[in-house]
Amino acid sequence: MLIIIIFGILSFVFGIILSFSAYKLQLNNDPMIESVNELLPQSQCAQCGYSGCYPYAKAIVRNSEKINKCTPGGASVTLKISELLNIEKPVENVFIKNEKIFDTIAWIDERNCVGCSKCALFCPVDAIIGAPNFLHTVLKDFCTGCNICLSHCPTNCIKIKKR
Predict the structure, then answer these.
(1) What is the Cα–Cα distance from 52 to 40, expressed in whole angstroms?
(2) Structure pTM?
(3) Residue 113 assigned to a binding site
(4) Could you say which residues bind [4Fe-4S] cluster 3 here (predicted)?
(5) Three-class secondary structure of residue 31 per DSSP
(6) pLDDT tens for residues 63-90?
(7) How many CB atoms lie within 10 A of CB 145?
């Protein structure tokens, strides 16, 4: 009974310490970073060279990173970010890459799919569905065209097609 009381008192004291330190050490979020992050597709695919959408948004706002590195977001995200930040639109990359990269999705050749599930494991937006050892398919509405699944398919049954 005494041990329960001691643990209860310690838990209460540590709870107060944690609450106080959380209050004093609050992180101040930059609203501009939050706004840019909301425009990004949140696929966390790392195609831009950053570990996710939030670090990329932070680099755009704080380090003046290029705004046209988001492959899944495409030209529309680039244009929205340029309007938000009131910066010049990178015309050469928006329109050339929009044609070649941004309007693509993954497609699985069902004759060659062995159901290894490796593509589904690495898909950042869960656009590939299927059970292990069964046929897999891509949900076209959710696929962002980040092409991460290509490198993980051992049978090369994933192709990139235009939407």
Answers:
(1) 10
(2) 0.59
(3) yes
(4) 123, 143, 146, 149
(5) helix
(6) 989 898 887 777 788 889 999 998 877 6
(7) 23
